[in-house]
């Protein structure tokens, strides 16, 4: 029941680092990235126009609120922290040819366990140790949660797209059950976990409101990128992603590597939940589900599974979502528009890449 | 609590199960056709949402449920057309485009709903039921199964029609070949791209109809994200049914019962949080996958775009 649909970049990822980057190359890549984004902005803008919203006013408002105002840019950078962890987790999975679409369930379970453990732990140990322990617990819980799809894929060949999606629906409900029944703060009437005091949360950077979780996220994604491109372990995973059968013939323990990939990917998603709770939210309210996991998937594709490019796209997504949330309150355009925009960017970019490939191919044939 | 297992309760439970099962059935049948032809259609959730939204709009403004079904099928086909162009014709990655379509339509239908209906939240009137004489007089089962909207019977009839198409017609064979060995189909002189396009567009139509049933017959209104994973459940059903429409029907009914239990237990006043009950259908899927996952068989060329002359 397995499907050979390794992410397309997985196959080319092996030689990607060896390519000599010329100036023309960079120009071409910039054009291939910015062109589709511009086209998508125009298409999405026409949707806004159709529902009676001035797209230019909307875009400039989003830009102003998400990027150009001092408060906005700080919120944007803070928002990046969980998204970077999630993107790092997806890069590992996608490069190894495994479709971990269960990020949201892993994220929420990580968030809930971090929210439950941190306020309890700060009472018995120093805050910094409590934070570290909470991070580790969140990571372990998310890893365990991914074990079912991982084992099913590794030893039974059950398609992981389906299992991770099912586990994400289950995880979302389970997180709610935990908040409402197990970890509920008896001191409040609203169902939510106990709140971690602000002074015990992750420190903020300098005199800003930016969380230091941003730095952790950057470290995570850069580490993942380097491990995937520069180490033997990363090479093994990319071989599994490019051709699982060849990997078996090369003597790699594919089932064990599969479980490892799921564990790393889910662990990073759990850390994403923890960093959002321990740095920003302080508690988990019942029915809280920001659904970052699904929104990050297109970002990772757009970045072609490159860690550094992903940082840029995560920044863009943060600007869009912070600006979009603000626009929802002020201009009455629901934040759902961000989803539309992101998906149009993804489709147009995929299309542009195809056309570019075709153009290059026909030119090569002409030369012959 | 005395009426917990009384006749009326059981009958209501079964009735709800059938209503909940039909959207899953339509989605599952649709996905089955795509998968048979070698296209893994992750965008089905988006197609259902497009169908649910357009079906509701059509039924609301025209006052006719059947016109609503027509517009919903059109909506599903429109989304499927994008998928067919991008994934079948030019061979882009089916999973990437599928996710993009699902995300985009989640956003788009929620956006349109916000600007159109968020102040009034209009509802459709309750649907008429078609009573089947004699059969509907059977206790418990009668009122549950044989006093349903006409579209329910049509959906069940579709199961057998699909079975016929797969087993007895040239199209059925072509679809199977497009998924198992597209090159062989091509050599036999039949256009693989065309066969797969037919399959994807049919999936769109069925998913759209499923969405419309969910919104118009089941709920009587459209709300954002109304499908809530029904499309994904359809994908699971198709995978477990091993290419046989009848198994999609059985699976859909099983999940229908799980979903129906959610409401029934609340009505009966059993004090379990809704979240626990909401986990039931997904838990059932996971258990089924653990038990039968190894035996589920998928077409050999599933998810691989066909390119003539490629190795």
TrEMBL record, chain A:
Keywords: Cell membrane, Membrane, Transmembrane, Transmembrane helix
Classification via InterPro entries: ABC_transp_permease (IPR001851)
Transmembrane residue ranges: 37-59, 80-99, 129-155, 161-183, 204-228, 259-280, 292-317, 337-355
Membrane-protein topology: Multi-pass membrane protein
Localization: Cell membrane
Pfam family, one: BPD_transp_2
PANTHER family xrefs: ABC TRANSPORTER, PERMEASE PROTEIN, GUANOSINE ABC TRANSPORTER PERMEASE PROTEIN NUPP
Protein's name in the database: ABC transporter permease
From TrEMBL, chain B:
GO CC annotation: plasma membrane
A molecular function GO annotation: transmembrane transporter activity
Pfam families the record matches: BPD_transp_2 (PF02653)
Domain of life: Bacteria
Keyword match Transmembrane: yes
Compartment(s): Cell membrane
Transmembrane segments: 6-27, 39-61, 67-88, 95-115, 150-166, 198-215, 221-240, 247-270, 276-293
CDD domains per the UniProt record, alphabetical: TM_PBP1_transp_TpRbsC_like (cd06580)
Keyword annotations of the record: Cell membrane, Membrane, Transmembrane, Transmembrane helix
Topological type in the membrane: Multi-pass membrane protein
Record-linked PANTHER family: ABC TRANSPORTER PERMEASE PROTEIN, SUGAR ABC TRANSPORTER INTEGRAL MEMBRANE PROTEIN-RELATED
Protein name: ABC transporter permease
